[in-house]
Amino acid sequence: MDPELWEKVLSPDNEYKRQLINQVVSTALPESKSLEQVSKLVKAFLTTDLPHGLIELLEKIVLQNSAFSGNFNLQNLLILTAIKADPSHDTSIGCRRGSG
């Protein structure tokens, strides 16, 4: 996973950015078992300032059964990103996380 490529495809100028994010979140990421790949993708979302995309990504791998569901660093990053992006969103994450 090339960071420069991710920066380019996640740029605001890319008209297909939303479709790419949807595909990564729904298909590619849930199948990944590599923490290194997940870390690079999370970093790409952080670098390109896509908090809502990062929230989608983290919800998918942390709140749904995946190899990373028990990763406390990712859980904390999800909560912090949600609070920063949308202060009203943190309550629903806490409820879903606590009920899982």
Chain-wise SSE layout:
Blueprint: H1 3-9, H2 17-31, H3 35-47, H4 51-63, H5 72-85, H6 90-99
Q: Would you kindly provide a written description of the structure presented here, covering whatever features stand out?
A:
This protein is mainly α and 100 residues long. Helix content is 72%, strand content 0%. α2 packs parallel to α4 and α4 runs antiparallel to α5. The longest helix has 15 residues. The mean pLDDT is 81.
Short descriptors:
100 residues; single chain; mainly alpha
Name the beta content range.
under 5%
Q: Give helix and strand order, one letter per element, not per position.
A: HHHHHH
The helix content is over 70%
Distance between the termini: 31 Å
Q: Unreliable runs, pLDDT <50, ≥5 residues?
A: none
Number of beta-strand segments: 0
Rg for CA atoms: 13 Å
What is the residue-mean pLDDT, rounded to a whole number?
Answer: 81
Largest sheet geometry:
none
Which structural class best describes the helix and strand composition? mainly alpha
Overall morphology: globular
Number of helices: 6
Give the oligomer, counting copies of the same chain as homo and different chains as hetero. Answer: single chain
